[in-house]
Amino acid sequence: MRKDFPVKASDLRAYNRLAMDAALAATDLLENLHHNVARLPGALAEPSNEPAPGIAGFVYRVIRGATRKIGDGMDHALQLLNAKGSTGQVYRQREILVAALNGLVGDHLHESGNSLSIPMRLRRDGVPLQLESESLRQCIPCVSGKLAVFVHGLCMSDLQWRRRDHDHGEALANALGYSTLYLHYNSGLHISSNGRELAEQLEALVDAWPVPLERLTIIGYSMGGLLARSACAHARETGQRWLASLRDMIFIGTPHDGSPLERAGNRIDRVLGRSPYTVALSRLGKMRSAGITDLRHANLCDSDWQGQDRFHSRRGVRKAMPLPESVHCRAIAGTLSKHLRLSATRLAGDGLVPVSSALGRHPDPQRNLGLAESDCMIAYARNHLDLLDSAEVFEQIRVWLDDASPGSGLRIPWSESFS
């Protein structure tokens, strides 16, 4: 076992519980498949969600009971082991694994009370901060009146802002004297739920900041940018004070118009769900988290998903959300293309997010974020993850946030505008 990736007894208990939940879910899927196939229906007959009858149903009930007993026994043994003590040291590989699990099934972890569910915290170097003035003063060296909060993306940890020995936050602190904090959160929860909690965290942070706050900046990567927009909407609706301190938001690879990959996955779900022979596979696909399904059309409000089947494709339902007034917003898009002369409308995306989506461009005026060209950047020959350690991307962020820099800082010319 690698020395930098120890396994704690508390983790083993949580993994055991998750494995038991997965085994029970797999049993349900197998029973559903068994029952549907045993009926010998037509290929496009109405699928059944009923449990298997007779002896088959009895066997599946026995399997569930045995699974629960084995899981409970393992949990008890691990609980005794955990009582001997554990370490509070942060381990990068563990954090990355747990963050990925939260992105995939974080809503289930949260609802089942699994200890692997990540509570939202503002952190530095993986250490949670107490949002009290004296504690912040002690934990943050050279507290500045300029504060930047970095918000990571789906299936990620705040520690993953560091990539290939580069961290945009650390570089910003060195270049412009910002104090930088990092949000750590369960990315499998609904975006609006996380946005609401982020707003609460920012309200407490601004109230507790130990020096006069001159400038608050939020830098959101991928899903993190959507959380920031949702948090601003919540703050505006509830009259929270921190929004008045927010001067800048920078979106890095944020899918403002949603994720094409999730929309494709949703179409596959619908196809598989039409036949009793494949409906079990459709149910398997529907185990993905609420955070992932929110990315289909970039749902930012509770009304975008409450009272609805989140696996039903409803593109026109989501509420249009303009950017907050009096906040200078910018966007950075990545593209795999190496050709600077290509029209922006014909550029491929970064492998996950199309250029138009990352820049908030949309043919519907209500959904077009209306960012000026001077507030947009396209990073060429960069995939989605490359945006995290691109020197070109950081230089653009630095120029945008440096009041002493001349001009708008636009680095990449546009060959033609979006329609």
Describe the structure.
The protein is 40% helix and 12% strand. It is an alpha/beta fold and 419 residues long. The protein folds into two domains: 9-89; 92-419, Alpha/Beta hydrolase fold, catalytic domain (Rossmann fold, 3-Layer(aba) Sandwich). Strands 2-1-6-3-7-8-9-10 form an eight-stranded mixed β-sheet. Strands 4-5 form a two-stranded antiparallel ribbon. Strand 7 (215-221), helix 7 and strand 8 form a beta-alpha-beta unit.
Task: Describe the protein's topology.
Layout (H helix, E strand, L loop, with lengths): L8 H30 L15 H29 L9 H20 L9 E4 L2 E2 L4 H7 L6 E6 L10 E2 L2 E2 H9 L2 E6 L6 H18 L6 E7 L1 H16 L7 E7 L7 H13 L6 H7 L4 H5 L33 E8 L19 H4 L17 E5 L10 H11 L18
Key structural traits:
single chain, 419 residues, alpha/beta, Rossmann fold, 2 domains, 8-stranded mixed sheet, two-stranded antiparallel ribbon, 12 helices, 40% helix, disordered C terminus
Can you tell me the overall shape?
globular
Number of domains: 2
CATH architecture of the largest domain: 3-Layer(aba) Sandwich
Quaternary state of the chains: single chain
The unreliable regions are 81-89, 407-419
Question: Strand content of the residues, in percent?
Answer: 5-15%
Number of H/I helices: 12
Structural class: alpha/beta
Quote the average pLDDT. Answer: 80
CATH superfamily of the largest domain: Alpha/Beta hydrolase fold, catalytic domain
